[in-house]
Amino acid sequence: MRNSVQLRTGHPWWLLKNGILGDYPPLLREARCDLAIVGGGITGALLADRLARSGQAVVVIDQRSIGEGSTAASTALLQYEVDTPLWLLARRIGAESAARIYSLGLESIRSIEKTAGSLKCDCGFSRRPSIKLASRSAHLPGLAREHTIRRAHGFATRLLSGPEVRRKYGFDRDGALLTRDAAQIDPYAFTHGLLGRAIENGARVHDRTTVLRYSVNRGGVKLHTDRGATVVARRVIFATGYETLDFMRPRLTQLRTTYAMVTDPLGARSPARKLPLMWETARPYLYFRSTPDGRLIIGGGDTPRLGPEETRRTLQRKTAWLDRALRKVLPGIEFEVAFSWSGVFGETRDTLPLIGANPAFPRALFALGYGGNGITFSVIAADVIEGLINDGDHPDAALFSFDRSGTSVV
To answer: C-alpha dihedral over 399, 373, 86, 151, to 10 degrees?
Structure first.
């Protein structure tokens, strides 16, 4: 790994690639609305776009600049699978519920494709196949079981042998599971595109404004901010990801730090440009994809959440580890590391998001896309919460509630 990597760490690639895509003023005076959305990442943007188009008066607030939290740190692999294999999820919550969750992931990718195509900006969306590699031969029976149950529920997959994996993709593994139903996107550009359309439909978006607390009265809620201004709304939606845990007790998730890096563009004829999205069976797993401009983005090496100073020290070591891991997976592919960064994410025990109401927080709804599928979970959250607000219910709400069919997620 070249020495210049040490000088180019800490900044998510999407921020460096896109620069400033929007200008959103801080909140300096009282705002009144139907719905206040706390969190201006991809989840809050999807909600703002949906709800503003349905006629709701929406205000979005974020403590950072828009999209600079977990959204900017995402590697943006769009997969319908959750981190728990379908066969294991079926054992835990029932085959019908597990298959429905996987189907919702598939529908989310289609929804993202349609939404991205309707925006004025280029969101970098493209369809890609996805391959889940057996990290070791002992994982092959699990892949075979996963292939069987997915096929039984109508998901198109193909089980590949070791020779097929090596011949088709160059990965030196004993087997893999291939699906054509995956995609990739530029999450930062997508977020700003969504918020731009929400603003056209009457939404107000404010960043660099921290919500300190919210109070409830008979008519709604009031958000109190660090700038002294308030937001008065009928309801509040928290789309603040892992940072929601700063005020939510008891803790419902484990927080982890993940690491990622991006290479310089590969040569125009490099076979790595055409590789599928890749992840593996090991935990924590390695994952990577190529970008439209021919770079490779790789992530993994998760650790328990670290403090800022320890994260900065660990990032150098993890960048070197990712570099070695990518060279091992893709022997013979020449590349140089351009940038690396870290991000924090939350994960529930069942690896599913938390969506909906929590009795401890009146007049509040939560859209918390925890786990390794944050973007597809964000779409599911937007669907469910839009139904809860406009129709009073949603048929899939129970799958992601804070009390999932009586089974605690803590």
So the answer is: 110
Cα separations (Å) of 248 from 233, 240, 254, 361? 21, 12, 13, 9
Given a cut of 90, is residue 384 above it in pLDDT? Answer: yes
As a whole number of angstroms, the distance between CA 132 and CA 179 comes to: 9
Phi-psi region of 119 (alpha: psi -120 to 50; beta: other; left: phi over 0): beta
The residue-averaged pLDDT of 237-241 equals 91
Rounded Cα–Cα distance for residues 177 and 155 (Å): 12
User: In the numeric block, which tokens belong to residue 361?
Assistant: 């927080």
Secondary element (H or E) of residue 34: strand 31-38
Mean pLDDT within 240-258? 69
Cα torsion for 99, 101, 102, 103, to the nearest 10°? Answer: 80
Provide the token pair at 54.
């349905």
Q: Distance of CA 277 to CAs 78, 195, 301, Å?
A: 9, 28, 17
Packing angle, helices 86-93 and 95-118, rounded to 10: 120
Q: Which CATH number fits domain 14-73+188-252+350-408: 3.40.1190.10, 3.50.50.60, 3.90.70.10, 1.20.1250.20?
A: 3.50.50.60
Q: Is 295:339 a contact under the CB 8 Å cutoff?
A: no
What is the DSSP secondary-structure string of 153-184?
TT--EEEEEHHHHHHHH----SEEEEEEEEEE
pTM of the full structure: 0.93
Q: Which two tokens stand for residue 182?
A: 């995956």
- Listed in sequence order, the residues at least 6 apart from 400 whose beta carbon sits closer than 8 Å to its beta carbon are 352, 353, 354, 355, 356, 380, 381, 384
On whether the CB atoms of residues 293 and 262 are closer than 8 A, the answer is no
User: How many C-beta neighbours within 10 Å does residue 336 have?
Assistant: 13
Question: What pLDDT shows up at residue 244?
Answer: 66
Q: Are 347 and 71 in contact (CB under 8 A)?
A: no
Domain segments of the chain: what residues? Answer: 14-73+188-252+350-408
Q: Which residue has the tokens 């996963």?
A: 146
Q: What would the mean pLDDT of 309-317 be, rounded to a whole number? A: 89
pLDDT at 10: 63
Confidence at residue 246, expressed as pLDDT on a 0 to 100 scale = 56
Query: pLDDT tens digit string along 47-61?
Result: 999 999 999 999 999
